Amino acid sequence: RRQGQSRRPQQPQQHFRFIAHRRLPMLFLLLLQRTTYVAAWTTLTLYDVLPEDCRTAVGNNDVGNVPGDMYFMLKDKYLPVVCAECQANPGACRHDAAAFDCTNPESTGRLVVRKIEVEVQSVGRSYQLCDVWKGSAQCEYTCFDPHVGPSGGIGSEPVCGGSSCQMAPPPSFFHHKNFDYWNFNTAARLGDFGNGTWYSLVAGDAAWRNAKIVKTINGRCQASRLA
Known about the structure:
Layout lengths: L11 H23 L7 E10 L9 E4 L1 H10 L3 H10 L22 E10 L8 E3 L10 E3 L10 E4 L19 H15 L4 E5 L6 E11 H7 L2
Antiparallel strand pairs: 1-3, 2-7, 3-8, 4-5, 6-7
């Protein structure tokens, strides 16, 4: 051996293994950056109430699970009382959540109840208000989002009764009619204790697909069972 060359040179194969080992974490990070997680599609069974002439289409509709739709139906049982009282004294019903559906086309007239199955990829929190608004053509449903910004997935809103719930605030000094108690107690029972939830199926939203109307019944038939 020559002087100063007592150490054996590193074998090429060992050197390659060292470089590969050092680069593995970097390659792993690159793979993570290029991989997009896709949530699995889940089939939900939902229900809605709407005018008979609008029964064939699904899109731009608000729907609910069983306790969520039950709240909507039971809430409407007091509408003949509250709406008549509000017509006689509109000022007394101003900003009263119990009177919100007095002009809702999904609460009066010839109605049907639908059972719908729909595939959903994800559920968000930006529930949208979908309806046939004043000035729209018959069955022309449109939605608007009252929240600050959108969130991923179809919109959802839990049914609830309480000070933080606009749909059913607790009775107060200004709103303490019998129907205010009915609204609050129904929402608390079916929402806070029953996990009632409303969902919005906005047309063009990629978070849902393949909606199928499983069954449609006459609204009067269902209402007779709630009498």
